[in-house]
Write a structure and sequence with these properties.
About 65% of the residues lie in helices and about 15% in strands. The strands form two sheets. A five-stranded mixed sheet has the order 2-4-5-7-6. A three-stranded antiparallel sheet has the order 1-3-8. The two termini are about 75 Å apart. The C terminus is likely disordered.
Amino acid sequence: MKMKRKKRLRNYLGGLLFICVLVCIFADDFVDFFLGFFAGFYELEEEEAIRQYGDLSRTVGGVALVVVIIILLFVFRKVRRKVTEPIEQLAVGMERVSQGELDVKVPTDGDFEFEEIQRTFNRMVEELDKAKKAREQQEQQNQQLYAGIAHDLKTPMTMIMGYAKVLESNRNLPEEDAMRYLQTIVEQTQQANNLLDSLLTYAKLENPAYALTKEKKDLAEILRSCVAGIYPTMESAGIEVELDIPDGSVEFSVDEPQMRRVFLNLLTNMVKHNPVGTKCKVIMEEKIELASGEKGIRIVIADNGPKIGEDLQQCLFETFAVGDSSRNTKNGSGLGLSISKKIVERHDGRIFYLDEWEEEYKAFVIELVGIKYYCT
């Protein structure tokens, strides 16, 4: 602030000095101008004009000079207020932004192009601030991702190492115990492998350069085969399933392996997080008007099991949103819904959760926009 006052004072003094120089240069010229005016108007010789109108010329010239000085001062202040000050404000704002301050706002009260420049500067700072916050949020999500991976890998790796050491140090274990230990090692290895596979898929989908391999496929058949594949698990878990899928072909431009991952993830979660006796509905509707107003396909996987807590609903599709208690009890990685969301979005669609879908049912809903929809 002190430097700013010094700079402003220096500018004022410079302006006044410039005006004084102009006064010194043009003072005699003003007097000569009016003396020549009176001499020409009254047709007088120079000496006679000086004798009769010399004092008047000096008076009028002085008054004119004062008027010019006042005009120059007014112009100087006007230029400073309309040009210099906006430039100084922009310079100060740029300096603060260069030092990392992104809460800078410059006044938008300049004239001519300056108001637009000021508005553009403020918009630029707002975009920089948004980009910074997005980067910080992404870094926070990455840290959460790394912590979640370490958390989920620790348990299977500890069990694998523990059982492997038992088998290594005790070669005389009963065959039944040895087989049980080996089975546990296999199961925990598979769990760790599933997590790493999910992490690899998540990393691919995070990369904007990664493209899905889409082909014209029968989406109804894909959904039916996913339900058929998980049906034995649903039956053993006591889950009743009701299907409402078109008998004909519902063709769509889709990456089949990735869309299977979405369907299986939703179905697996439904089995994993619901008690015996839960009823499930798997529905596909075609050529319907979606919430966006476009025609497309809607897929619903609903159940009448316990509702999801409100706090968790807010972050269902974020990485490791299941929380520690769910991971400890259900062996969930917390990546499934996040990956599903990215896959669906890569198919120009959206996925969302409805806590009150129908009667006592909750549901996950997938909507695929009809721009790439080929129904036969």
